[in-house]
Amino acid sequence: SQKIEQNSEALNIQEGKTATLTCNYTNYSPAYLQWYRQDPGRGPVFLLLIRENEKEKRKERLKVTFDTTLKQSLFHITASQPADSATYLCALDPYNTDKLIFGTGTRLQVFP
Amino acid sequence: DADVTQTPRNRITKTGKRIMLECSQTKGHDRMYWYRQDPGLGLRLIYYSFDVKDINKGEISDGYSVSRQAQAKFSLSLESAIPNQTALYFCATSDLNSGGYNEQFFGPGTRLTVL
User: Contact, A28 vs A94, CB < 8 A?
Assistant: First the structure.
C-alpha cells in the first residue's frame, strides 16, 4: 500500500545535540516534500520544503535532505534546544494534485 | 489577529446531533481544506475546495459535508454525529500562486467530542 512512515516512537535527546528525524515513503514520486512542526493542541506550522531536484535544504538550525532513490527525507535540528520539543510531521503531494498526505509524526523531546 | 480561525475551539455533543465547524481566513487564499487528526493516524483529508465554486471529497468524507460560503469561509458539517467522529479537526489554506508547492497554513483546531 502507499504510505508515509515516520518513527512513531518519541525521540529523546540532550540539549545541544543534533536531532535527526526520518520520513520514508513508498510508491510515490513526489515533486517535493514538506516538514511541519506541531505543538500539543495546536495546528501544524510549515517549516521547510525540499524539491525533488534538491539534495539538501537549510534554514537556520534546520536541515532537510531528500533522497528520491531511497524514498527518504531526513530532518535535522542542530544545537537542539528544549524549545524544539514538539511533534514533527512530513508531508508530500503524491500525485501533484495539491493535496498533501501527512505522516503520523515523530515527537521530539529535548531535555536540558 | 490569527490568519486562519476556527470556531468553536472545543465542542461536546451527543450522538445524532447536527454540528457545524466554521473556518475563516484573512490570507486571501483560494484553497481551503478540512482535516481530522486522530492519535496514531495522523492528519487525514476530509474535504477540500480550490475556489468558491469547487468542492471535492477527500480521503474520509463519509458522514461529513462542507459549504464554501465565500473565499474566506469554509464550513464543515456533521449531519448526525457519531462517537467515532470524536477527533481534532483542522482547517487549512494554501495559495494558488505559491509556486506550485502548496505550503499549508493551519487554524488552531477544534476539539470535538461526540458522546
Answer: yes
